[in-house]
């Protein structure tokens, strides 16, 4: 098996494009009220999910999503060779404790809301290079755990600003293998950290949008693909504010946005009231990819997808110190070939 080949400055093209052979998404009650409810594997009735804390619930959600994705590929969890996962909580505790229970060899990752793309990109590289044959990429988030850590106790009833986004209670997991049936990951672009000086933690879309533009531009330059090559280019999760800024960035950088461009943060709660700028959290883009987007690919409604997950690389410490918010974005080309 031939290893992946680097192209351009930031991208890799897979010699033997890895297959997405199983995927799953579990979401919370609010996500189940959105337009994609039928595309998720499970919708929670409540945010505690039978646990004594929101953090424990998030851990269980991630565990079950991984188990479901592997089972849908016709395998048992014990047959998975490696788990690549992360989340938003201190020292990625949701992924750590899920890995403890799943007993799969584990590498923990932190890419903020870009973690689904980061884990999937690394999984594809490991599969194509021949190191493993069954790798799971996964991530999760929970609205109330994130609110408690990054913002204010929900009991205070702090009013969100118009640019704020609702952290999704959601999890996504994907099993990647060297062969079989399913969409294939043909190439990927590793993002650079971009920081334009945004300090407002309630406006993460503005902080992440430049990184999305940077990575998408690098992807098209490195691959030589036309900007209309993909049926859909989807970022996540910029929300309404960030998506608008990203579209402007495309024009400024000479990338005219194709008509088939959207954002997971806009799509997840599309049509729901009182969401402000849209969704955020690791689980936002993960659930959209592992729910409606891959289902559309399996039905042939989308054949060429560019998935560009974005992350705001901040922490409560950096926010309290008045630091700006660095952004990152990683892109994967997922195709029916």
What's a concise summary of this model?
The chain has 337 residues and is of the alpha/beta class.
Question: What would you say this structure looks like, in words?
Answer:
This protein is α/β, with parallel strands linked by helices. The protein folds into 2 domains: 5-177, 3-Layer(aba) Sandwich (Peroxisomal Thiolase, Chain A, domain 1); 184-335, Peroxisomal Thiolase, Chain A, domain 1, CATH 3.40.47. The protein has 10 helices and 15 strands. The two termini are 19 Å apart.
Largest sheet: 7 strands, mixed
CATH topology of the largest domain: Peroxisomal Thiolase, Chain A, domain 1
**CATH top level assignment of the largest domain:** Alpha Beta
Number of domains: 2
Set out the fold topology.
Blueprint: E1 5-7, E2 11-13, E3 19-27, H1 29-32, E4 42-43, H2 54-72, E5 82-86, H3 93-102, E6 106-108, H4 115-128, E7 135-141, H5 143-150, E8 166-167, E9 170-177, E10 184-189, H6 204-223, E11 232-236, H7 239-252, E12 261-263, H8 264-267, E13 279-280, H9 282-298, E14 304-312, H10 316-320, E15 327-335
Parallel strand pairs: 3-4, 5-6, 5-7, 8-13, 11-12, 11-14
Antiparallel strand pairs: 1-2, 2-10, 3-9, 7-9, 10-15, 14-15
